[in-house]
Structures
1.
Amino acid sequence: MMEKWSNESDELRARFAAVEENYKQICDTIARAAQNSGRSPEEVTLLAATKTVPVEVINHAIHLGVRHIGENRVQELLEKYDGLDKENATLHFIGHLQTNKVRQLVGAVPRVKMIQSVDSAKLAAEISRLNQKYGANTDVLIEVNIGREENKSGIPPEALDELTDEIRRMKGLHVKGLMAIPPVCENKAELEKYFTQMHRLFIDIGQKTMDNVTMDYLSMGMSGDYELAVQCGSNMVRIGSALFGARIYR
Ligand SMILES: *Cc1c(COP(=O)(O)O)cnc(C)c1O
């Protein structure tokens, strides 16, 4: 029994050390990419994508300085919620969200500050309805399916203006930017094309002054491609495995 416990804490200590090392590297890479694109490192926000990661490990990342964390499943977020160090980090929802689950995230108990994956007026309307009922507010990003892939969340780029205009009229939410997960690409040039298209959309829509829209965040870039994403103008990267190690699905 003692043996098992000490092995477990050894494992946790090793994991904490790995996260610390990874975190430093990620911060360095972000800083370099920000500077390469004429920005200061502070202009880029690191969000830790925490699916499958145990609460102790997430809280260690927060202890190291991670200030934003994102879950992509409602059930998993609810399981971890009480144990998370919410005083020191902001919670985001980053996954596909069904309308009937919105009530777990906003409204009576506003568990997340931002929902990054809004891709329909119906979903936004439900966020709005619950928040109005309870006097709450949620920041939202509109998810763009920049590669126009079938079976992928997000709206096609050409639908962005209209959906933004529809959502911004809703009370209880605030449109704060755009989010995208580009297609898996054969080469860097192709990926760069998608990131650049997203940045263009972000700039274009930001230039239209609209009430209840502030294009603060362009959320794109994950473990395998965040350096390129930042070079192309991303100011929020969502990083999972590069920070926490390969995911272990139980
Ligand atoms: C898991 C996930 C990430 C992070 O993926 P990694 O490749 O592990 O960095 C980013 N965004 C979303 C929406 C995710 O679900």
Note: The first strand starts at residue 45 and ends at 49.
2.
Amino acid sequence: MNPKIWLSSPHMGETEQRYVQEAFATNWIAPLGPHVDGFEKDLGTYCGVDHAAALSSGTAALHLALILVGVKAGDEVLCQSMTFSASANPIVYQGAVPVFVDSERQTWNLDPEALQAAIEDRMARRGSKPAAVIAVHLYGMPAQMDRIQQICQQYEIPLIEDAAEALGSRYKNQACGSLADLSILSFNGNKIITTSGGGALLSNHEDWIRQARFLATQARDAAPHYQHSQIGYNYRMSNVLAGIGRGQMEVLDARVRFRRAHYTYYREQLGSLPGIGWQEEAPDSFSNRWLTTLTLNPALSGGITREDLRLALERDNIESRPLWKPMHLQPVFAEAPFYGAGVAEELFDQGLCLPSGSNLTQGDLERVVRIIQSLF
Ligand SMILES: *Cc1c(COP(=O)(O)O)cnc(C)c1O
């Protein structure tokens, strides 16, 4: 059996262990501490955002973002359908109702036309506008944020940026993570950098980030005893994990270079095969290429499907995965309204994520490429 090739596995640098050891040496094991402060500063500086709160996960960050913009039970929230379920679940945590919107074909992200149609139709049906919009940068590819921001401003709807997959990506020379009223990041184990588990909420509004830190530490009022006037959460990142994050920030740009080089190699080697398509970078966009993804159109490939590719890779002990299954096709969201024309569904049917970790070797990439080429 050939050694396993993973889709995207953690990749530690040289200094993470030193930061963790420092936490042990100073007994800053208890939640919060200097590494949390340092990691928050690093994130804000990197993304060009004034304030950041390090949290237990990206999901927690999205939940707090919805609370901060005032999403309440019964409200509707518009969300990109083609995404990981964590983009949408926090809507339901708030007792609100998700309304899903299709993708456009260039970036595979929120389609501005469908977004506008959805807002108009929900307002006509309900007499009130959606309480928030959630846009995602899938696989690191920036969404068409100018158009999306402009639509949200026109209707005065708060915009939340799910940049969980896009740390290190840029749009018109601004970092993903800085492109909305509130932005979230994830440091889960498979992301471009990881703290084993973690997330962050970023904003230029200091009040929001202060309130996020308050809610994330059980909403404790200023009193010597434990006193609470609001329902709180246990959503902060621990000082030990923030130490890993500080080490990972030192290698982030190198990780982006590796992942982009993997994409370039795959495209050079596989680009001429019939029926293969790619997620295209617009001229003013820079993707971290968190995952290299391709589509395979069986009408052009002689009947070869993305599932044929996936199974052939699996037989060689190589992990690959279909693209995110759109939320409006998930059993749990079967009742949710959807606006679009089947782009997300087609991408799901034809799309595959290839092994993309920054720790893959040239030999690993060659194995993946050989197997795919052998099918044609
Ligand atoms: C990973 C991810 C999240 C959730 O992040 P966690 O840290 O795993 O909670 C949210 N949205 C998207 C698009 C993701 O890929």
Note: The chain has a mean pLDDT of 96.
3.
Amino acid sequence: MNTHDTSRLAADLLHHFGRALQPGDSVVPGIAPTAVFHLPGNPANAPYHYGRYHNPTWEALEGALGLLEDAETVVFPSGMAAIAALLFTNVAAGDRVLVPADGYFTTRLLGEKYLQPLGISIETRPTAKFLDGGFEGYRLVLLETPSNPGLDVCDIAAAAALAKRAGALLGVDNTTMTPLGQRPLELGADIVVCADTKAINGHSDALMGHVASRNGEVMTRVRDWRRYGGAIPSPFEAWLVYRGLETLEVRFSRMCATAGVIAERLAAHDCVTGVRYPGLASDPAHATARKQMAAFGSMISLTLRDGVAAERFIEACAYIQPSTSFGGVRSCAERRARWGDNVPDGFVRLSIGLEPVEVLWASMDEALKGAG
Ligand SMILES: *Cc1c(COP(=O)(O)O)cnc(C)c1O
């Protein structure tokens, strides 16, 4: 992974929109809340026709995300709407789809509830053993690395080679890393999906998602799916996410740096029985993580003695917001067993935010000691 390349991308991101301006234009994109566009005569003469087909604010966001992905990008009103677009446009009756057993739960649920009855087989493998057995016979393989919430890592380049050999499409849910932390398309994946609700927007005030691919046929299907299925983002939300994206690099690098410090200290803490963070040299995922990630992410998983200790810790820490989700400016945490994840009762998923590291650590250390 070449970090110099991502620095260049981060700088270009800030000037991308401005490069096409005419004198007197606004240097930031506007919000275009319209269902219809002025359309006299031949539609071929107008860039915009109707609000379900196109919108200039979506295009500003897609331009910025597309720059980071170095690929055609289509935005959706949530991460799941992007994943639904990927699934429903790339498989047909009789196809087999492989998804992680320990990945984002709703992706699996969507497949089982709506694709399986259409004659599509949804199969699972744990992320840590995702490559075992190859991908022969699959039409679509969907990977999520690091996995969520267990933070296992899978070798994307190796998965891409196996998918190619098997004639399968490889999709990667890159939500936890963003295009600045990990670049699946560069590593050979066919399609990336991302919940921009998380770090890309970063302010926990909007949902959004995107699909990106360098395969034109895939993107035509995905764009048509949005037009005809009608799952379109609101221009206002697209503008909010654009605004959030402008500071992604500074937020994400701060969050990852803080997470690295906190993970080391948690691993050495008497009250913590287990820690997973791909950046820890002792982590089973570390070698693969080093190979493919530009940073090690903002999420840490830790295990405390039991569920009561975990709840006490979350409750007592002044700078941890008890909430689901991750990638926002505020650190937050939750006990994942409350959702039925296959993890110990005392397992906590911790998302590191922008609090200065020593203040955050002092409050965590105190809360851990109190939790017992
Ligand atoms: C949150 C998340 C999603 C879904 O995103 P929404 O915007 O909530 O629909 C998908 N994949 C991963 C890995 C996520 O964390």
Note: The longest strand covers residues 72-76.
4.
Amino acid sequence: MTKINVTKPYLPPKSEYQQQVSEIFDNCILTNQGPKVQELESILKKYLQAENFHYVTNGTIALQLALKALAIEDGEIITTPFSYVATTSSILWERCKPVFVDIEADNFTIDVDKIEAAITPRTKAIMAVHVFGYACAIEKIQEIADRYKLKVIYDAAHSFGSRYKGQALSCYGDISTLSFHATKLFHTIEGGACIVKEKAVSDRLEMIKRFGHQGDDYYCLGINAKQDEFNAAMGLAIFPHLPEIIASRRYISETYDYHLTGVVERPKSQSGLEYNYAYYPVLFRSEEELLKVFAALNAEEIFPRRYFYPSLNNLPYLQEKQICPVSEDISRRIACLPFYPGLSEEIISKICQIIKTALLNVKMQETA
Ligand SMILES: *Cc1c(COP(=O)(O)O)cnc(C)c1O
């Protein structure tokens, strides 16, 4: 039995990557804003219609660079507890305090109606996540940020390929960050990006990402977040396949819908959102149901993942206990099903059958 994992990295035809690599060998430029990095940046800039775009080594450093470039060095950052750990860890790493605001039950993004109550004189920014590729309440968040003079950072790691009101979902806020990790919809093995609204902030980020100096002139404290040519080459080989990647994910999503409508709960998509089909999250009625379904799937070598669990306000290394009932509840009973181009209808059908049988067994035990 071949193992079915929650995701499988997309690989372009080998010859297309080899062609890219062969050009790197001809150029003998391996890093430091080489031709492949420049080409990928220009392609992605155009695709996203982003004025100020920085390709960096990963999506976590992108978040840290965002805080640094916006000169946020301490204070409180309002954020969501329902995300991958990097959203919170980047805030802590930059010596700021994450202040968790609970999420909406409909699509798991930060609950905008609860943001204002969490603002204090120490609040510097709102860091929200377009989780699973669904859009945050962008207009309302911006309105609050303007009123309280806060910066807005979007962790847009899931949103590449989503469009909101005709614009790439990855281009909102003062800075949006992307991840091009191998497990993401579009990847460069490891990689990430910062999309910056203001030119001055973008220039500062450019300096920070390469040690803070230009030649012998030293401007500011910097780090090394430069991406190299081989990673960019993977992106260049994959990018032309993006339309078929998204179309294939859409088809798989619809196949799951066909089997699972009425069986499990699903997030509600928003008006104005052109969805990228980044993940296929399903919500069970209870953690017990989830664990039973997992046991049944695992027995068949099928491995969904608990995205996202635990709710990040419960991370053991946080100094202070904060409570987010909605996120904690959803975290306990949500899972992402295997979801990647190439997943066959036969396997999807098998996965759904196992889920249905396991849920039926739970129900029979309840009524027994
Ligand atoms: C993947 C991910 C990141 C981190 O990206 P890396 O490129 O792996 O560092 C950050 N935030 C979210 C929501 C993610 O899913």
Note: The first strand starts at residue 4 and ends at 5.
